[in-house]
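Long-time lurker, first post. I've been practising inverse folding by hand and with some scripts of my own, and I keep getting stuck on stretches where the structure tokens seem ambiguous. Below is the full token string for one chain I'm working on. Before anyone asks, I'm not after the true native sequence, just a reasonable design that respects the backbone. If someone could post their per-position residues I'd love to compare against what I wrote down in my notebook.
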């Protein structure tokens, strides 16, 4: 018969041999998989029994002692335990920091925030300024648990950032309730005070007298024009307004052209064009 240790182990041998040696206490299992459990179809001494591992090294270190007259066959499958190294933008994240995966999720995160302050952090994995600033942004998130920090990876959402006129990194936008966008600015580690001032100014509790605004109409139209969100999210007056859509697209092109002339960026911010 066969006994299985989950995961990756099997022990085979006569049932009476295993039961006999188990009774004498001469069966020993040493491995790193934590708790091993013997399973078999028939009822015997091993059913439901567990063996606790005695080391934290390798699962290949499986030792079973039996009598010479009753050998057992042991099959062990070595397992490698690998922990994924976190990228710098994945480190020190707080519960109120949200990494968005699509433009639709971005729009929803703003509209569902109600009266809470929302800080949108546009960053890029290759931006030195973003990397240097990240620990301080995480610290600000920890100190302001009622504020929602929305993280937008520029490399993964270039089309969305382009539609929202984000051309310099690190870049931040603050939104709140019926007021919609409160401010937009770029800052680096050297100019972090700009971020702190904005947090103090816009972080006080308040009650909005109206529905949550989120993105403005031109931003929603730009996202819909690039098929990044459903046109059903647009206000009724813009859903079939081709002239308004053309103006928004022209505005995006103009904004891109202007950003190419903005080369006087201090610190280690990144200009994206």
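-- Answer (accepted) --
I ran through it position by position. Result:
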């Amino acid at each position: 018969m066969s006994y299985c240790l989950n995961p990756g182990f099997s022990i085979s041998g006569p049932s009476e041999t295993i039961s006999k040696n188990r009774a004498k206490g001469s069966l020993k299992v040493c491995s790193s998989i934590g708790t091993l459990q013997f399973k078999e179809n028939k009822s015997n001494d091993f059913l439901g029994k567990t063996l606790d591992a005695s080391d934290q090294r390798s699962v290949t270190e499986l030792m079973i002692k039996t009598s010479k007259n009753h050998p057992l066959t042991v099959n062990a499958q070595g397992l490698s335990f690998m922990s994924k190294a976190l990228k710098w933008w994945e480190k020190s994240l707080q519960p109120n920091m949200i990494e968005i995966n699509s433009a639709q999720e971005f729009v929803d995160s703003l509209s569902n925030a109600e009266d809470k302050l929302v800080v949108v952090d546009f960053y890029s994995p290759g931006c030195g300024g973003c990397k240097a600033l990240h620990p301080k942004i995480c610290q600000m998130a920890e100190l302001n648990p009622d504020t929602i920090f929305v993280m937008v990876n520029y490399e993964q959402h270039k089309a969305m950032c382009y539609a929202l006129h984000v051309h310099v990194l690190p870049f931040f936008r603050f939104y709140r309730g019926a007021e919609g966008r409160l401010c937009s600015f770029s800052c680096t580690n050297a100019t972090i005070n700009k971020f702190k001032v904005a947090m103090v100014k816009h972080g006080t509790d308040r009650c909005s007298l109206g529905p949550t605004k989120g993105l403005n109409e031109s931003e929603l139209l730009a996202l819909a024009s690039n098929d990044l969100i459903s046109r059903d999210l647009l206000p009724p007056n813009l859903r079939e307004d081709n002239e308004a859509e053309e103006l928004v697209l022209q505005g995006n092109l103009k904004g891109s052209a202007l950003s190419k002339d903005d080369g006087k960026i201090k610190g280690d911010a990144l200009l994206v064009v």
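A couple of notes from the structure itself: The longest helix spans residues 242-260. Residues 102 and 157 are 7 Å apart (CA to CA). Happy to go over any region you disagree with.
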